[in-house]
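Supplementary Methods. Inverse-folding protocol.

Structures were first reduced to a discrete structure-token string of length 307. This string, shown here, constituted the complete conditioning input.
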């Protein structure tokens, strides 16, 4: 019997489309134990029925993928998931579920893939590595594809003085819908500007220079196209920067709006995000998160069977 904790994540961070991400201290917790047949039980965000209690789920998909990668037959397991990550809000709930299943399977086979292997496998399943990277490695993560299309990633710890805030509206925005509004091609000038800004993110984190984020978080690749899907996004982003946010960015595909600020400006930024999220929404202030953590658990049923 194993348990894994996997962090929520915020991806893109402005211009780092499908490349940059941050792990958040808001963990999906999943346990798996041997069972005569696959089963799944979900508790958490969205309430009963938000994720159907069937074996056709993202946790089992990640779990089976590891065994198939290794040429092994996956065992049947009973899975229980406790999820505090908002669904379809741009905080990496899908990636967390896939990583959880893969991490559990890798733990059961003696970590034959290891953390880098879990990352590569789940990034292939997702099709993009921006949420998967921080869910696996923690902190601030940069991910990219090599010449063969294989994903690689590196992470840095987020500076201790940086404060994160997320304004989460009550409505969902499915990733497929948010991707559908993006263009197939971009002007060269937009691509060049975005490359420099995304690279500046890494320097800001490595050197603890949050003032660089005022430029590093400016986006041309996805936020202008997704703004019509997120009422108040542009106005709130501008207001946040005026009130002390170093960065204001659409978290993942949205509709959540993320902020990096400091202790002095947290209250002002929270006020803006509360107005953006609306009375039915909420504002979270998580610390930076860690990469996934697995641990063996004692199953009371095992003890009962030996007495």
């Amino acid at each position: 019997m194993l348990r894994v904790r996997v962090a929520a994540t915020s991806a893109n961070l402005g211009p780092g489309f499908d490349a940059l991400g941050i792990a958040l201290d808001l963990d999906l917790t999943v346990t798996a134990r041997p069972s005569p047949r696959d089963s799944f039980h979900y508790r958490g965000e969205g309430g009963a029925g938000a994720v159907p209690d069937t074996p056709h789920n993202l946790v089992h998909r990640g779990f089976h993928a590891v065994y198939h990668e290794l040429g092994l037959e996956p065992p049947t397991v009973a899975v229980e998931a406790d999820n505090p990550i908002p669904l379809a809000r741009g905080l990496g709930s899908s990636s967390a579920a896939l990583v959880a299943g893969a991490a559990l399977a890798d733990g059961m086979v003696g970590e034959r893939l290891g953390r880098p292997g879990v990352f590569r496998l789940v990034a292939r399943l997702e099709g993009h590595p921006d949420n998967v990277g921080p869910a696996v490695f923690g902190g601030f993560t940069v991910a990219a594809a090599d010449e063969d299309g294989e994903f690689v990633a590196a992470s840095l710890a987020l500076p201790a003085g940086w404060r994160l805030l997320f304004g989460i509206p009550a409505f969902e925005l499915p990733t497929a819908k948010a991707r559908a509004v993006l263009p197939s091609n971009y002007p060269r000038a937009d691509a060049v500007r975005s490359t420099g800004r995304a690279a500046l993110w890494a320097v800001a984190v490595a050197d603890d220079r949050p003032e660089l984020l005022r430029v590093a978080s400016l986006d041309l690749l996805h936020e202008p196209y997704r703004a019509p899907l997120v009422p108040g996004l542009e106005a709130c982003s501008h207001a946040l920067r005026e009130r002390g946010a170093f960065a204001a960015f659409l978290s993942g595909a949205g509709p959540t709006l993320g902020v990096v600020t400091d202790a002095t400006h947290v209250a002002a930024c929270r006020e803006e995000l509360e107005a953006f999220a609306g009375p039915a929404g909420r504002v979270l202030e998580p610390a930076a998160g860690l990469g996934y953590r697995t641990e063996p658990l004692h199953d009371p049923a095992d003890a009962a069977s030996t007495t």
